[in-house]
Amino acid sequence: MKKIATLFVLTFSICRCLQAQQAHNPIIYTDVPDLSMIRVGDTYYMSSTTMHMSPGLPIMKSKDLVNWQIVSYAYDVLDDVDALNLANGQSTYGRGSWASSLRYHNGVYYVSTFAGTTNKTYIYSTRDIEKGPWKAVSFKPSLHDHSLFFDDDGRVYMLYGGGKIMLAELNADLSGLKPGAAGQVIIENASAPAGTDIGLPSEGSQLFKINGKYYLFNICWPRGGMRTVIIHRADKITGPYEGRVALQDKGVAQGGLINTPAGDWYAYLFRDFGAVGRIPYWVPVKWQDGWPVLGNNGKVPDSLDLPANKSLDPGIVASDEFSRKPGEAPLPLVWQWNHNPDNSRWSLSRRPGYLRLTTGRVDTTLLLARNTLTQRTFGPFSSGVTAIDVVNMKDGDCAGLILLQQKYGWVGVKAAGSARSVVMVSAESGSPVELQSIPLTQHTVYLKADCDFKDKADKAYFYFSLDGTSWTKIGAALQMSYTIPHFMGYRFGLFNYATKSPGGFVDFDFFRISDKVASEQ
Predict the structure, then answer these.
(1) What residues make up the catalytic site (predicted)?
(2) Handedness of CA 507, 468, 415, 443 (dihedral sign)
(3) Dmax over Cα atoms in the chain, in whole Å?
C-alpha cells in the first residue's frame, strides 16, 4: 500500500511539473484585443487595438508564441483633431484606431487600421518593425475591420465590412482605393453559417492564403448565444466562398491563424472577460479535408503544448522609477497617454527622478484632462503604487492615481486654498462622487490601487500611506465595469488637472506594479 501511495505522489508530481512547463490560457491576462499576427522566420509579431491612446497601434514580439513584449508603436499621434487632443470639450473614448491588420511583404512590414473619429483608413510601413521609422499614408473612407492582403499576382486588396463582406483593390503604392475599383460584395451574409437570428453580424475580417486557397476568419454573435468564429474558404479571392462555424466555446473569438516553424498551427483569438478587458487565448488547429479545425473536440483548452507563460512584467506592464540615463527613451513602451498629450506640460528632466505633470488649462472633469499617463491593469490580481509630491499644487487642483474607465475610481490629493486633503472619488454611479476626504499635513503622500479580476470579481480598493509602509484604506470598493463607451479594460493612470487656474504641478516619484494585492500579501 505504501508503494502505491508513493507511486501516486510521484505520478501527481510529474503531472504537475509537466503542466507547469505548458502554456495556459489566457495567454495574456490583460486587455490586448483585435489581434493580428505574423511570423517572420522564428519571430512572431502581433498588433492590437489601443483606440484613443497615444502612442498607438502597438507592435509586440515573441520568440515562443506565449511570452510577449511591446517593441514599437506604428504612430505617436494618429491625427491632430480636437477629439484626439481632448480639446474644446471633445474626446474619442471608444473610437480612435480600431482593429489592425499586420502583414510582411517583400521585406517590408505593413500595419493598417481605421478610425471612425476621422473617417480615415491608415497604413503604416517600415523595414525595421522594432526600430522604425514608420511611413504613414491615409485615405478616406474608413474601411471597417479590414484585412490588408497582398496577393500572389502583385495586387493589393482590403476585405472589410460587417455582415456583408466587401473587397476593394488598392493603388500599388497603398495611397488609396484604386480608381474605378469600387468595393464589391464577395459574401452577402457572412453570418449565415451561425443561423438567422444574429445580434452582431460577422466582422473582424482576417484573410489568409494557404496551399492555394483563401481562408477568411470572422466573428459573429447569435442572439442568446456567444461570440462565434466563422470561417469561409474559396479558390479565388473574389469567391464564391463556402462557410462554416469553426468555434463556439467560452465566447473566445475574433482573430486568425498562425503556424510555428515546426509546422504546428494555432488560432489566436480573444475573450471578453469583464473589467480587465479582452484577453488573448490560443486554440490548437488541425487540418481536415482542407479546413482548419479549431480546439480540442471543439473546446478551448486550458493548457497548450507551448512554453510556459512568464510574467507580463516587464514586456507588457512594468514599474518605473522615472530615472533616465542619457540616450534612454523618455518613457518605456508600456506607457500610453490617454489621448494625445500636451508635450510641453510633462517632464522627466525638470526634477530628475520624477515625472512632473503641470496643468495647462482648467478642466471640468478628469476624463477631459490632458496628460493622464496610463498602463494596463492585469489579472487575476494587480496593484499599482505611487508617491506624489503635492507642494506645488494650486487651489482647485486634483492629482493622483486613477483606475481609468467610464466608471472610474481614484485616490489622490485635492487642493483647497493652501490646504490639502487625501480623497477617494468614485464614478461607479456614472458621475464622480467624493466618498471620503482626510486632511493632509505633509508634502508627500503614497497612493495605492488594488484590482481583483479573479472569476470576474472586478473589485478595486484604494489606499494611502504617509510613510509608504503602513496603509490606510480610503473610500469604498469600486465595482469596476467594462463599458462600451470606453471599450477598453481598466488602466492605471497618473494625473493632475486644474479646476480653477492652470500652472500648478505635481511630481510623481515612481510607479510600481505587483501581482499581489492587499488580501494576498
Answers:
(1) 34, 203
(2) negative
(3) 81
Residue 49 pLDDT greater than 50, yes or no = yes
Q: If you ran DSSP here, which 8-state letter would residue 60 be given?
A: E
As a whole-number percent, the residues of the chain with pLDDT over 70 amount to 95
pLDDT tens for each residue of 298-354: 999 999 999 999 999 999 999 999 999 988 999 999 999 999 999 999 999 999 999
Q: Please check whether residue 455 is in contact with residue 510, taking contact to mean a CB–CB distance below 8 angstroms.
A: no
How many residues can be counted in the chain? 521
Domains of the chain, CATH where assigned: 24-304 (2.115.10.20), 336-520 (2.60.120.200)
Q: How far, in Å, CA of 304 to CA of 253, rounded?
A: 17
Tell me the CA end-to-end span of the chain in Å, nearest whole number: 40
| Angle at 143 (CA atoms; ends 140, 144), nearest 5 degrees | 145
Instruction: Give the DSSP per-residue string, 6-57.
Output: HHHHHHHHHHHHHHHTSEESSSS-S---S-EEEEETTEEEEE---BTEESEE
Q: Among all residues, which ones are annotated catalytic? A: 34, 203
Contact 465, 448 (CB under 8 A): yes
Give the β-pairing of 472-473 and 459-465: antiparallel
Annotate 361-427 with DSSP letters as a single string: SB-SSGGG-S--EEEE--SSEEEEEEEEE-TT--TT-EEEEEEESTT-EEEEEEEETTEEEEEEEE-
473 φψ region: left (φ > 0), alpha (ψ -120 to 50), beta (else): beta
